[in-house]
Amino acid sequence: MRRRMVAAGAAGALTALALPAVASAHGLVGKQDLPIPRWLFAWGAAVVLVASFVGLAALWPTPRMQELRERVVGRVPAAVEVVCGAIGIAAFAIVVYAGLVGSQTALENLAPTSVYVLFWVGVPFVTFWAGDVFRFFNPWRAIARGVAWVGTRAISGPPPEAIEYPRWLGRWPAMAGIVVFAWVELGYVGRDDPSTLAIMMLAYAAVQLVGMSVFGIEPWLRNADPFGVLFGLFARLAPLHWRDGALAVRRPLTGLPSLDPRPGTVALVCTMIGTTAFDGFSQGTAWNDLAPDMQRWFIDLGLSARLSLEIVGTIGLVGGILAVAALYRLGVLGMRSVGERHTVDELSRSFAHTLVPIALAYVVAHYFSLLAYQGQATAFLISDPLGEGANIFGTSSSTIDYGWITATGIWYVQVGALIVGHVAGLMLAHDRALALYRDPRAATRSQYWMLAVMVGFTSLGLWLLSAAAQ
Amino acid sequence: MTLVPFAHFGHWWTSILYLAPVVAVVLWLAVQSWRGRRQDGGQEDE
Predict the structure, then answer these.
(1) Mean pLDDT (10-residue bins), chain A, 470 residues
(2) At how many degrees (to 10) do helices A440-469 and A265-281 cross?
């Protein structure tokens, strides 16, 4: 324990980067040694996107991704779902227990790292290549299915009918849930307090269970479970598709065009990009110059320093989401100007799926270093989840190795993720335009606007990373 | 007071460079769009 704390202390500010309350940056550890200025990467990324756009226009004349083609490669026994669900429930219970009973120092308790690093960042990193594995481990789904299984055997007669999930509500509850989580992470002052986190986890579970009991398990999970819906979107990028007790394979990205753009979908994806963008922006000098002045203004109105800080964070968070939504809206309005009389709402929904790889690119670019470094803390936290000196698995003396990847290496991963994510978005948009517009020239011309949006998002992402690294 | 932004110019001028590709692409697209519309107009006249 002592060795661990000494190591953590030696890491100093590096360790402090990892958790939200003390984070000054999720971005970079150490000094980058880059051959060219960082802004030149934005120029290079723009060149790659323009070249991709020209290549798509010349070499991709007909839609290829609109029909989902999958091949079933194996069966998944029902027992696997039961075991995974039990593991999910056990993990949830351990983290909640650690948060409530363990040390209230964030870096010593399993709960903050589990929630902000392993769950929020780690699951998307697994999902985009392995598919929607969270669905198997989802503890709320497992509990609800368990209760339903017991209920149907305990009660004679048919089970009570669930209320039909309102179509107009769509994915709005999921979007609202992600906003609340992002607010807790980025705006709430007590965000890394383990017991507060544990109580919020219980409250979240209660909301999910009530929702599933009212509207039915699957309709609720498809629309309103914020994490389930979000990870499900990321899973559409994956070459693996777990469905109906089977494992199917498909080409990467091809799961996205079949996304049903029900109400709230665009808002959900814009929220994901906007909250990540604000997380980066809040670590830059521009925000750190501005935020204290805004906070002082609220304090002068008679509010407490803490509440003022939270209000300022909330304004920034909402501003980030609105800025991303406005950028997407601009692209859609531009597309609308290209003949064929498609409405703004129709275009907005039709191209919603093209934002998903961008949202994932932002997650990878922004949180890769957090996962790469603080993710290693799992080794000692799992042995001592309460932070009270236990050594359950004999790994409590392990430390975080900050040398396995350099700051320069992280920068290249971030730039690569942003470029690949935006090129993927461009491909999806091009394919959808070919399917949507009767005239291929109109389809290409409509995508001028999406290209501008993609270059805008790429430059924004690199600027945010660069600002956070300074 | 109005000179403050210029005094800090060294801190934020690189941010403008991140905007440059966006401006360049938008200008290029505007030209392409204008040329495309002009071509379409010419074809309709014929």
Answers:
(1) 40 40 44 75 87 89 89 92 96 97 93 95 95 95 93 77 92 97 92 94 96 94 95 96 91 94 95 93 86 93 94 95 94 83 90 95 92 92 93 92 88 91 94 90 85 89 80
(2) 30
**Closest residue in chain A to residue B30, using alpha carbons only:** A448
Question: Does any CB of chain A come closer than 8 Å to the CB of residue B22?
Answer: yes
This model of the complex carries an ipTM of: 0.74
CA distances from A385 to A357, A380, A400, A460 (A): 34, 8, 16, 38
Select from A459, A460, A462, A465 the residue whose CB has the most chain B CBs within 10 Å, as the one to mutate to test that interface: A459
Query: What is the pTM assigned to this prediction?
Result: 0.88
**Which residue of A327, A437, A455 to mutate against B (max B Cβ within 10 Å)?**
A455
- Of the partner residues B17, B19, B25, the one whose CB lies closest to the CB of residue A50: B25
Q: What is the number of other CB atoms lying within 10 angstroms of the CB of residue A306?
A: 12
A42 within 8 A of A48, measured Cβ to Cβ? no
Euclidean distance between CA atoms A90 and A138, whole angstroms: 11
* Sequence-separated (6 or more) residues with CB below 8 Å from residue B40: none
Rounded to 10 deg, the angle between the A356-374 and A123-130 helix axes is 130
Strand ordering across the sheet containing A240-243: A71-75, A246-249, A240-243
What whole-number distance in Å separates Cα of residue A386 and Cα of residue A294? 38
Q: What span, in angstroms and rounded, lies between the C-alpha atoms of A255 and A258?
A: 6
CA separation for the pair A353, A131 (Å, rounded): 16
Choose among B12, B15, B29: nearest Cβ to A452. B29
CA distance A320 to chain B (A): 17
Judged by CB atoms closer than 8 Å, whether chains meet at B17 and A462 is answered as no
> What type of residue is A87?
I
Rounded distance, CA A96 to CA A168, Å?
34
Please give the structure tokens belonging to residue A447. Answer: 């995508």
Residues contacting A351, CB < 8 A, separation 6+: A331, A332, A335, A429, A432, A450
b/e for A337-347, b at 16 or more Cβ within 10 A? ebeeebeeeeb
